[in-house]
Amino acid sequence: MFYGTTGMLFLPSILSACKKTTLQNENNFTGEVIIIGAGISGLYAAKILNEFGIKSTILEASDRVGGRIKTLSGFADFDIELGADEIIGENSMWHDMVIAGGASFVSQAGSPLYYFNGSIKNEIEASQNTFFNTMNNIIASIGDYAGSDVTAEVFANLSGVSDNVFHIFNAKVANTVGSCDERMGMFGLRTVEERRTSGTTKKFIKNKGLKSILDQQFSKEIGNVILNSRIQSIDYSGAKVTVTDEVGNVYSADKVIITVPIGVLQNNDITFTPELPVSHSYAIQQIGFDQGMKIIVQFDERVWPTNTGVIYGSGLIPEFRTTAALERSTEDRWLTAIVNGANAETLSAQGDGLIDVVLGEIDQVLGEVSMHYVDHVIQNWGSDPLFRGVMSYSKPGTGNSRTTLTQPINNKIYFAGEAVHDGGHHGTVHGAMESALRSVINMIS
Ligand SMILES: Cc1cc2nc3c(=O)[nH]c(=O)nc-3n(C[C@H](O)[C@H](O)[C@H](O)COP(=O)(O)OP(=O)(O)OC[C@H]3O[C@@H](n4cnc5c(N)ncnc54)[C@H](O)[C@@H]3O)c2cc1C
Fold first, then answer.
1. Nearest partner of 416 among 8, 155, 30, 42, judged by Cα
2. With a 6 A CB cut-off, is 257 part of the ligand 1 pocket?
3. 413 C-beta closer than 6 A to ligand 1
4. From CA 242, how far away is CA 239, in angstroms rounded?
């Protein structure tokens, strides 16, 4: 990917960052950099800085790297992704890395099942329903939306999505991008369509977990991460920037790249001296960031029809995803519930009763199958103080907040991470990488 000469590199163009074009950049900066957060954007920023010969240190609050890339090994006969899973688009740096990491992709995703009007239906059965077809047509029109920035719920109501399939609309639209219809903005949804510039494919890896790709592609950067260092304050009032973690360790550098999830910034978990400009603190609050979780349920046998891919429920959980249909498992007895937005908040509030709610909804959709339940794993991104949510989305009023955050402060503070991508690729791995690239280009230009 990189073609270097001393102090000068050819980087993928951020103007068309998904495409494999290049941009010549000359380095005008020779100082040191601190990167806060060892998710994909922090790791990638360190990698690019290293290519320029710029020294960086990554400070990570948790005891692991990867952030919202988190692979669960040992619970099933394949590696389960608790965070990012699909490789969205084939024209991206992330896609290239995954290929370079030896990944092979599943060839088909299995057939969907839909629960509505009191029964489960396959695609053919569902497509005999007028309301279902109308809903699909309305979803297909979102890329051409020309109205005002109302919520997806308002849009669906005005467009004529019928009550009996409203939950499927939510599952296919807002839930897939980390929120729910009553909060997701239509401008944001339309912007998501811009992701198509990175290609229209969505691929699942079948032979390895994403963590192993990170370990392989970022081995040098991972070796330089300081773990268990939760940053609480950043002082950029002097010539150098000093950052302090929760046990009082102080680090200093010329510039800092902040890659923590936007929810961490919204909650003011990190204080700034001087305070952030109003433009930036306002922009941080305008970006949508909801609770979300994945619940992996293990059964003693497959309790759904063979070759099933996604199952759309009608309760709190909009989507269940099977595994063997994705060619990952030989046993096909693990089901992943994916729930974001208001439903995730309701589910999270169930406490120990959460799994009973999940099993009850599985029973409703698939019949009395919960007697085959064995075990489960809950990954609740919203309740984790190092994330405070699942992935950013644009609510009505988000406007150009992401663009504001791409602007450095005093040539010392740079924001990166998925929420800072302002070209429609927020909420993705490749978007997070592109935001890191952009912050480095801003830094060295
Ligand atoms: C459930 C789920 C499903 C997803 N599915 C997909 C998908 O299929 N395809 C796709 O492309 N993307 C998907 N995404 C989105 C993708 O995972 C993210 O966009 C991307 O991983 C974000 O990377 P990041 O570096 O911006 O942030 P993160 O990965 O969140 O990294 C930020 C890091 O900052 C650390 N941190 C927090 N606070 C502090 C602090 N005070 N001090 C120091 N460190 C701190 C965190 O511990 C974390 O390691 C999904 C995300 C989730 C949660």
1. 42
2. no
3. no
4. 10
User: Within 10 Å of residue 360's Cβ, how many Cβ atoms?
Assistant: 13
Ligand 1 pocket member 41 (CB < 6 A)? yes
Residue 297: CA atoms inside 13 Å, Cβ hemisphere, count?
29
How far is it, in rounded angstroms, from Cα 322 to Cα 420?
Answer: 32
Q: How far is the CA of 420 from the centre of ligand 1 (A)?
A: 12
Tally helices (H) and strands (E) across the chain: 15, 25
Domain ranges of the chain: 3-66+210-288+396-444, 110-183+292-380
β-pair partners for 245: 231
- Give the pair of three-digit tokens for residue 58: 């990554």
| Residue 427: strand, helix, or coil | coil
**Which band of pLDDT confidence, cut at 50, 70 and 90, is reported for residue 202?**
confident
- Could you tell me the two tokens for 13? 């163009």
Atom of ligand 1 at shortest range from CA of 41: 25
Separation of 321 CA from ligand 1 center, angstroms?
21
Q: Identify residue 294 by its one-letter amino acid code.
A: K
Q: What CATH number labels 110-183+292-380?
A: 3.90.660.10
Give the pLDDT score at 6: 34
In tens, the pLDDT along 176-190 reads 999 999 999 999 998
pLDDT in tens, 295-334: 999 999 999 999 999 999 999 999 999 987 778 898 999 9
Q: What values do phi and psi take at 381, rounded to 5?
A: -70, -30
User: Which atom of ligand 1 is nearest to 293's Cα?
Assistant: 1
Q: What is the DSSP string of 193-236?
A: GGGGGG-S-EE-BSSS-HHHHHHHHTHHHHHTEE-S--EEEEE-
The verdict on the CB of residue 92 being under 6 Å from ligand 1 is no
390: which 2 tokens? 């699942």
DSSP state string for 61-121: SSSSSBTT--EE-SSSSSPEESS---EE-SSSHHHHHHHHTT--B-S---EEEEEETTEEE
CB atoms within 10 A of CB 384: 14
- Structurally, at CATH architecture level, domain 3-66+210-288+396-444 sits in 3-Layer(bba) Sandwich (3.50)
Residue 178 CB less than 6 A away from ligand 1: no
For the record, the structure tokens of 388 come out as: 């405070």
Q: Is the shortest distance between the CB of 37 and ligand 1 below 6 Å?
A: yes
Neighbouring residues of 426: CB distance < 8 A, sequence distance ≥ 6:
391, 392, 393, 394, 402, 418, 419, 420
pTM, rounded to two decimals: 0.95
